[in-house]
Amino acid sequence: MGSADYVYPATNVECSHRVAIPPPQPFVKSLKYNLKETFFPDDPLRQFKNQPTSRRFVLGLKYFFPIFDWAPSYTFDFLKSDFIAGITIASLAIPQGISYAKLANLPPILGLYSSFIPPLVYAMMGSSRDLAVGTVAVASLLTASMLGNEVNANENPKLYLHLAFTATFFAGAFQASLGLLRLGFIVDFLSHATIIGFMAGAATVVILQQLKGILGLEHFTHSTDLVSVMRSVFSQTHQWRWESAALGFSFLFFLLVTRYFSKRKPKFFLVQVIGYLKKGLNPPSFEDLVLVSPYLSTAIKTGIITGVIALAEGIAVGRSFAMFKNYHIDGNKEMIAFGTMNIFQVRKLRVLVIQWKFPGPFSRSAVNFNAGCKTAVSNIVMALAVMVTLLFLTPLFHYTPLVVLSSIIIGAMLGLIDYEAAIHLWTVDKFDFIVCMSAYAGVVFGSVEIGLVVAVAISLLRVLLFVARPKTFILGNIPDTMIYRNVEQYTNSNTVPGVLILEIDAPIYFANASYLRERIARWVDEEEDRLKTSGETSLQYVILDMGAVGNIDTSGISMLEEVKKVMDRRELKLVLANPGAEVMKKLNKSKLIDKIGLEWIYLTVGEAVGACNFLLHTCKPDPLKEESEAHNKV
Amino acid sequence: MGSADYVYPATNVECSHRVAIPPPQPFVKSLKYNLKETFFPDDPLRQFKNQPTSRRFVLGLKYFFPIFDWAPSYTFDFLKSDFIAGITIASLAIPQGISYAKLANLPPILGLYSSFIPPLVYAMMGSSRDLAVGTVAVASLLTASMLGNEVNANENPKLYLHLAFTATFFAGAFQASLGLLRLGFIVDFLSHATIIGFMAGAATVVILQQLKGILGLEHFTHSTDLVSVMRSVFSQTHQWRWESAALGFSFLFFLLVTRYFSKRKPKFFLVQVIGYLKKGLNPPSFEDLVLVSPYLSTAIKTGIITGVIALAEGIAVGRSFAMFKNYHIDGNKEMIAFGTMNIFQVRKLRVLVIQWKFPGPFSRSAVNFNAGCKTAVSNIVMALAVMVTLLFLTPLFHYTPLVVLSSIIIGAMLGLIDYEAAIHLWTVDKFDFIVCMSAYAGVVFGSVEIGLVVAVAISLLRVLLFVARPKTFILGNIPDTMIYRNVEQYTNSNTVPGVLILEIDAPIYFANASYLRERIARWVDEEEDRLKTSGETSLQYVILDMGAVGNIDTSGISMLEEVKKVMDRRELKLVLANPGAEVMKKLNKSKLIDKIGLEWIYLTVGEAVGACNFLLHTCKPDPLKEESEAHNKV
């Protein structure tokens, strides 16, 4: 792509412009620039520049604790909005917290703790004003699945609790250190398609697990994959309790109908949830961290995986709201806030498991947003509401049947299976659809980790394939212009007799140097065959449009050198058009520029074709210098 | 990069050309095309097209056995050249084979077998006419290092032999199946820089191992890393035999001086090598394959790693000679040939270890080339010469002192440390230099595998970083033209008032979508700050040059959608210039094209700027349609 020409049709004089070799930069300077772009792309310190020290301190405080930024201008009107929003999300968070605790095989009361301290931490440190912090089903499932392989929650509940607790601690530490080390971009490697497939798969698995509650089964498999669950369910058909199933499905139907009719209004889950809830707040518990060898690695692994997923989803949700309200979310800062949140709840509360380190899912934040929240104070209100519940209202939650709990979970999970998004992926990008389906199938038929690893691996493979097998096109002239474009995209474009114009569409790296050498040779072969059959002018020039070649390494330089030699042997002239700054720098340093000849490197394809045509028709040795001098005088 | 314009200065009428949406292609067709480009980039079946079946059979035979291609036209003159070349390389191969066998802790005679059958197989199946097949030091070292961790060659020589033998078999099977499955591109991921660093590191390690022979030590470490070897050497200074060291260094000096003076002539290693050589050929030995569990995985791992390195080096060497003589090397075909060679020698000879599956190193092939070889018959001559040696001359090699053997190895290894190439890497591409040094340090301070893994990981990281942190530039107008280029490369270019032109230099994928969103926002912020300070025209248009954006995925589409919304909110107009076929297809399928507006997508940056300028100065709502109609009439 990216080439055209500049002609004065009246005089028909081609003017050629020199391709500039970028001014040399000291190594240290360019290294510093590259490091900055890699780790500080958002330039977080920009506001600190040219400021006195005291001002810097205030700005730094505001940077880590955005509450100082908005608190001074907080008004009573804001408080009214935030109060209503906070109470609303609390009414969602309480039943959700308890349900999701069941998912992670943890005592239900722990679900409530999760909605108490973390929102307070986030209110002070987070940069999103709309994110409602709380528990999330997928994280609960991850806990159950990953820790459940090591320890049986029913047989050894205390160890299981401590492990979950340790995993939360490591997730928090991992998140905070990613943020501090400016490695937030690791989260970017979980693509949108991966998250859609992963969430849908996790939701499917959670729904399958609820068959236990719906069918009133006593025994159930600890595996989460479809095959094991189905085998477990259908091996004990005689145990199914039909009255339980009927109640469960009726309630689920009721939930779905209610939701359908209130689709654009906040959803109030005014239901009670079963559980052995202990009243009151718990003492600190750093001593409960399990730091002994046999389980430590499991806890760390669980912590890291859930930490990354939590971040990916939390940041994505926060960002979509930030876009609506036009403010900025700093990914690395968010990580520090999430991480502190998780470490903190370890300190203050007994067991605050992975599921509670999760930032609020989209639905809860959407409610918060719709309920008119102005600032993160809504999170503080929610925390207070939860605290009141913890202190005084827990007995109320004692009498909910398990089947209702299962129905609530299924109802919530069905919303996570975003089949419309999957259809959209299929329409727009087949490869993303494959990634999404792999994540789904991996989670449903294998495990949560398998799904995640497969999806990330396929996504990375795509990036590597893009570089390993770059597109190469033939460019043709768009009629009545001097613009040259891909002949497949612009079907009305015409090739130039005697000249083959190829565009290379990726950086030339070791991974594609061999491929490009062979592909260029094949293009030339095919073009010569075609010309032989049709009896047209024989091929004399091969123009490589380097406009899209962003970088080149030493393997790429060797490749170009070989191509140049092969062209020389075949008596073809190699011409380069529009090489970028990096490419020119390296052509120059490797002296390849002298072998190709600076006079055979043009600023645009149009100029290159102009020069070739001129030579084809006049057969002068090197008219360009004269042309360019003539132009300079004009 | 990649944009310019087309103006008639006389009339000053901008003409705009529509950006084409590529014609829709059926999914199956485009999938087929992509698979072909990935696995059959060299179109190996092209010559089979439109041929009768009998002809296809002949071509197929020639494809797998190139000997049928050149044998019919073989002349006596060729034989004369090949005979001399064959004898010359045999005189190199015999001492090298024996020396390298010592490196791999194997009986020296096995080194000779390696130079017997493999050249015969390669002569029939290989596509390079100059490659001299034989043993290579690095592979010997790999064997010693990887198998030596499992089995002590001195304590259990039989098991060690069998393991080495099994590893060779797997290396062969792996190579052949890579070739058959068209996965040859995996070898491309070992970049030039990696191989330079790896070879130099391996040579250093081999030289360190020779300290045992030079200093006449009895006991020596089995580890290969620098620290262990140095500790082993300096812990037994009282055991050093000074007479041995003096003899060794003198001989090494003699070798190096001889080589210096005969630098551009074939090197004849007319020296004898120690060993307990058994006369005669050995019976088949498939039953010696070790297929039992504790060692099988080691053998397979060793086989695969050495197999890949052997291929990478062999193909690189073969290709550089092919370039000189202008013929084509087919990577995948070479793999099948190398693989068969290794499987075959397992069948025909007792133990032909990894070191013998290696194709000849550069030096031996260079000798072959200089000695005037015409075809692979030189390999056959060499094989015969080696056979004669095996049958009749082995007793002669009995009386060489070990110290001389060590000197020969050191002399050969010094040639593999290509410090000039490393300096070249530093000059041309700092990142490649880092890759090279990591490979070197990994091999010298860790192990052969560590060096390899580190270098490949860093190389891949570079590819991922290219995509994760793409370059974005501001484009400026090159004076007196309508061409727009990177302002940093073209220091004389000028920015356009009221218009910010950004070029994105990589595909927009999940891995960089967040980065690009933030980076674009930052460019706009910085530009607005600059304009505010200088009091120029405020910013009104942001043009994204998509010329170098080869592809976009759904995360990228969402990113563009967000950028569009943010621009709308900031009252800036988003304009796209020169999107490629893939990008246009996906913009169209995702309906984003309607949100941006087809009238805001231009073929070149020049046209986009023209339209913006026109609007800036006349403030008409949408003049382009009229313009373009006007132009169509002209």
From TrEMBL, chains A, B:
Listed GO CC annotations: membrane
Membrane topology listed for this record: Multi-pass membrane protein
Subcellular location: Membrane
UniProt keyword list: Membrane, Transmembrane, Transmembrane helix, Transport
Segments passing through the bilayer: 106-124, 131-148, 160-181, 193-211, 240-261, 376-393, 399-419, 431-461
Highest taxon, organism lineage: Eukaryota
A GO term for molecular function: secondary active sulfate transmembrane transporter activity
Domain STAS: 489-612
Main subcellular localisation: membrane
PANTHER family, A to Z: SULFATE TRANSPORTER (PTHR11814)
Family under the similarity heading: Belongs to the SLC26A/SulP transporter (TC 2.A.53) family.
Name the UniProt record assigns to this protein: STAS domain-containing protein
